Amino acid sequence: MLDSLITSKTRLRLLVKFFVNSKTHSHLRGLAEEFGESTNAIRKELNNLTQAGILERHTDKNKIEYQANVKHPFFSNIQEIIRKYLGLDKLLEQILERMGEVEQVVLVGDIAEGRDSGNIEVLVAGESLNAEYINHLTTRVEELIDRKVVFTLHGERIASSGLVLFDKEAGI
Asked: Which parts of the chain are coiled coil (predicted)?
């Protein structure tokens, strides 16, 4: 549905890249390589988003790096829209609903780095997790969000560099 509002595929991919995980940063050539697009197309969209204040640009040696502007008044709104577009809100809702005593939910892999490859890898940590429910949940979530989902269950808290969607201890 978001594709019909944001008709530029490049702009949508950039928003996903930088707003799924606000710590993500990248430079022009890296984005062009990742997206398989020309640097001119990427540069145009980066300039538009930077001029709007949605992205920030930082100079690092000879490279200009871009990152989401977390101080922008619409930052949380854009992030929420992008996460809903990817189905992360429904994913989290389904996990917390019947998985048991969930302590953490962490996204890893492509999606945690802002790449919408169509696959979502999820680490779920907690005691007494309902492992039988996971097969049913996988099918249900994949139908809801139209993406392949892989769950990995852990008995203990996860020390991961992924994107934390839920952390009972931290109140996230």
From this structure: none
pLDDT digits (tens, 9 = 90+) for 36-46: 999 999 999 99
Q: What is the reported pLDDT for 1?
A: 64
List alpha helices for 87-169, DSSP H.
Answer: 88-98, 131-145
Q: Mean pLDDT, the chain, as a whole number?
A: 89
Q: In whole angstroms, give the CA distance from residue 25 to residue 31.
A: 10
Give the list of residues 6+ apart from residue 164 with CB closer than 8 angstroms, or none. Answer: 104, 105, 106, 170, 172
Q: What does the DSSP assignment read for 59-88?
A: EETTEEEEEE-TTSTTHHHHHHHHHHHHTH
Structure tokens at 53: 């204040």
Is the distance from CB of 91 to CB of 149 less than 8 angstroms?
yes
**Locus of tokens 């001029």:** 51
DSSP β-ladder status, 101-108 and 163-167: antiparallel
Q: In order of start, what are the domains of the chain with their CATH numbers?
A: 2-77 (1.10.10.10), 87-167 (3.30.460.10)
CA distance 47 to 43: 6
Measure the CA angle with vertex 65, ends 59 and 67; round to 5°: 125
